[in-house]
Design brief:
alpha/beta; globular
Length: about 260
């Protein structure tokens, strides 16, 4: 695949649920002058052949749209229904207006249920709500069967996220494979199978200390190496680690993601 046609990923946010800096914190990361230590909530955009695929809609989505000049969203994938991954959903309204069409969104059943509880006026609007200026989204439930979304074949698997669940996505395009799993607490056999010899993986790497809902940096690195991944990025990073320090101690094939990072796969 030529570089001009390769899918391009833009990391819109690489931070954990609080964002970095954390409100009221004066730690070395939260006060760092390195812009890579300033992390909005996690989300990415993938563009290919004029198709724009958005993965998650964090609370910072409007800010990310302006910062990275997003002018079109053709489809959305949701990993799970936690606030830091869905609270930007209302900003889809303006893309509806710009594109004169509803936008399809895809998620596993537990994510759709969570969106439905939090955003009933979007997910299942009452008759008197249908004329409101609300996001027009066509929701589609994902199962274990791959679906075609624009130029991408998309497969998904439910993965553990502490006491809850999240979703790992495997996107395939022209024989190349990209895996996105920003929130997970264990690498299940299903996720390991997705990652096996993948071209690029973006995976949870919160911090060094254990956390009940996230992978440690060491466990993420081990999983990446065990699966023979060509190139990987850690995301959903907290305020426990400076980007420059983490970059120095990671293997060359594994890099910490940062807001504004772009790469092809």
């Amino acid at each position: 695949m030529s570089a001009a046609l390769a899918p391009r990923v833009t990391v819109l946010g690489s931070g954990t649920s609080t964002g970095v800096p954390i409100i009221g914190c004066q730690c070395p990361v939260c006060t760092s002058a390195d812009p890579r230590d300033n992390r909005l909530r996690s989300g990415i955009n993938i563009s290919c052949a004029g198709f724009s695929l958005q993965l998650d809609l964090p609370p910072d989505f409007r800010q990310q749209v302006f910062r990275y000049s997003l002018s079109r969203i053709d489809a959305v994938l949701f990993t799970h229904p936690h606030a830091d991954h869905i609270l930007g959903i209302d900003d889809i309204r303006q893309f509806n207006s710009l594109q004169h069409a509803p936008i399809p969104a895809y998620a596993r059943d537990f994510t759709l249920a969570g969106i439905g509880r939090m955003f009933s006026y979007i997910y299942q609007p009452r008759p008197n709500q249908k004329q409101l200026y609300r996001p027009k989204i066509d929701f589609h439930e994902l199962t274990d069967e791959p679906v075609q979304i624009g130029p991408f074949s998309v497969a998904s698997r439910e993965i553990p996220h502490g006491p809850d669940y999240s979703t790992a996505f495997l996107l395939a395009c022209e024989g190349r494979r990209f895996v996105y799993a920003p929130d997970c607490s264990a690498v299940t056999p299903e996720l390991a199978a997705f990652m096996e010899h993948a071209d690029v993986v973006v995976i949870d790497g919160l911090r060094d200390r254990p956390h009940p809902s996230h992978l440690t940096i060491a466990s993420a690195v081990k999983a990446i190496q065990d699966c023979g991944v060509s190139r990987a990025y850690l995301t959903h990073i907290g305020h426990d680690v400076l980007h420059a320090d983490l970059e120095q101690r990671l293997p060359q094939s594994i890099r910490p993601a940062y807001d504004g990072l772009e790469f092809t796969w």
